[in-house]
TrEMBL record:
GO cellular component: membrane
Protein name stated in the entry: Alpha/beta hydrolase
Domain AB hydrolase-1: 22-255
Origin species: Natrarchaeobius chitinivorans
InterPro entries reported in the protein's UniProt record: AB_hydrolase_1 (IPR000073), AB_hydrolase_fold (IPR029058), AB_hydrolase_sf (IPR050266), Epox_hydrolase-like (IPR000639)
Keywords noted in UniProt: Hydrolase
Presence of the UniProt keyword Transmembrane helix in the record: no
Gene Ontology terms for molecular function: hydrolase activity
Amino acid sequence: MTALALEDAHLWYETAGEGRSLVFVHGGWLDGTAWQPQVERFAREYRVVTLDVRGHGRTGATDRGRYSIELFTDDLEALCAHLGLERPILCGLSLGSMVVQEFCARHPDRAAGAILAGALRSMPPVDLPPGAKPFLSPTPALSASLSVAGPRATFRSLLGAVRATTGRRWLSVDPSVRASAMNAVGDVPRSEFRKVFDALYRYDPPALDGVTTPTLVIHGDHETPLVDSQGAEIARAVDDGRRLVLENAGHLVNQDRPGAFNDASATFLESLPP
């Protein structure tokens, strides 16, 4: 991996292959290795770029007291500029899907294409009355849980709450994928876990009207209904939006069904203008 020196951090990234640029942005509390099945497939034909978002992986903790999706997008823009990627194809998972949406909202026609896996617009994935979100924030309770139980146990309790509410194995239907994700969460420091969660919760998504970037939204059929509806909303909002639901897959759809995910992505990529 290589580090890009930012003003207040070193952003670690990795490249593989040559050709058209394909940039992958991972989900919350994961890292760039979450895209390994896609790197192995697409590095044969594309210049594949993975990164560790600040607070995650080798990039790790930074001195910022607060993170935001906007800040993560600033970092993505800096990386694209550093690598000279003028028309990248962007692929984001969960938190990464928010970063890609923010990028496309800022630059409606700059990305050559976008693939959004486990895509959501906001967290919680439901409309709240204007001004109510700060007063309903779970961050204080989450901080208390982190101080006592740590990131892995706190995340496990969040998953339990989702399953109790929806009856779905939301994160992943594959025990090995789930275990790998839990291990990655356990490597995130308490303070960084809280800052990432706060960034997700506070994010106010931009309107996507006018975004002309061809976009493919991919969800698993074990996704929560509210997140699934947000994915449908994204596909409707952009000028060229498409949506696919893969069976026997959860939120980490690219790892639960890597072959099907890669095939669908390849078909989409082949449809993009040269």
